[in-house]
Amino acid sequence: MDEDGLKILVVDDESAVRRIMSRVLLRHGYHPIEAADGREALEVFCHENPAIVITDINMPDMDGLELLSRIKEESPEACVVIMTGYGSEETAIKALRSGAGNYFTKPIDLPELIYAIGVLADFIRSREDKSFDYKKIIRETKTIVTGNALGAIYSIVHELTRAIANFPSEAESMQTGLLEMITNAIEHGNLDITYEEKQKALQDGRLDELYENKAQAMPYKERKVTIRYEFDPEKVIYTICDQGDGFDWRSLPDPTDPENLMAASGRGIFMTRLYMDEVVYNDTGNEVTIVKYLQSSEV
Questions:
Q1: Which value, in Å, is the radius of gyration of the alpha carbons in the chain?
Q2: Of 116, 156, 181, 277, which is the most exposed, with the fewest CB atoms less than 10 Å away?
Q3: What kind and span of H or E run contains 172?
Q4: Torsion sign, CA atoms 89, 265, 200, 95
Q5: Are residues 167 and 246 in the same domain?
Q6: pTM of the entire structure?
Q7: SS3 for 187?
Q8: Are both 144 and 283 inside the same structural domain?
């Protein structure tokens, strides 16, 4: 991932946490800015316009939830990542439903954080100028077939979410859910990379090498992901199908149990279940349909 000095605001009332995170972000080419509480963070956000905000949930005066809400009022497309501890599952779920783009539990796994921030940074950079008013679209269908290049996902997600411009409160969560599910289809479906393989490669700093080796090997390199998309003023439907062997989706953690939010494995699917109204797998587990019902908004 190609970092180019994106501003990242780190918000935590513990100076040691801010210092460590800022050093790591700086080492990876980002431009960290610090704030000690929510009120200071809101002032910094309005003045500096950072690309990403990483904030703790539990802070005095203005907590992370209120900061998230205020930032979203200022900028609906703002990317906010939350940090929380074990025992705060309900609060973390509330933050995700309020528009947080990702979450991490303390103590923070720094390699995983940098990887996730890199994904968000790539997605932010891939945003295009909108010369066409996509609010004029009232019905649309598409079918996209893509290979296993993870870098291509961002433009696909943008293309498949243009028509929801009239639903800014829903846009970011749908983009995040779609990004997670297409990534899962490539990583765990087509490339057959297990969670354990990915975590080890991430810790060893050879994740790109793992992707490249898998993508060039048979039978993985010939596999495709097919995405079917339908939009109308009432709902948006995405069906994502990979050519892997599938998996036992029935063994996924119960999405109604908040404690499963903190489970490391399957977090992308868990988040998507929070963001979307329906997440339905076929029997094999290599095709998923995600549905979001849209609230009316003026065109």
A1: 19
A2: 277
A3: helix 168-184
A4: negative
A5: yes
A6: 0.73
A7: helix
A8: yes
Please name every residue paired with 67 in a beta bridge, in sequence order, or none if there are none: none
For 25, phi then psi, to 5°, come to -65, -45
Q: Is residue 2 part of a domain?
A: no
**Partners of 8 in the beta sheet?**
32, 52
- Tell me the torsion sign for CA atoms 283, 263, 32, 56: positive
Which residues touch 16 (CB under 8 Å, ≥6 apart)?
none
Same domain for 138 and 25: no
Q: Which of 94, 118, 91, 128 is nearest to 106 (CA)?
A: 91
Output the pLDDT for position 298: 44
Same domain, 175 and 71: no
CA atoms within 13 A on the CB side of 168: 9
d(CA 129, CA 52): 19
The total number of residues shown for the chain amounts to 299
Residues 185, 98 share a domain: no
Give the range of the structural domain holding residue 287, as residue numbers without chain letter.
134-293
Residues of the chain short of pLDDT 50, as ranges, are 1-3, 297-299
Helix (H, G, I), strand (E, B) or coil at 153: helix
Q: What is the DSSP string of 246-263?
A: ---GGGSPPTT-GGGGG-
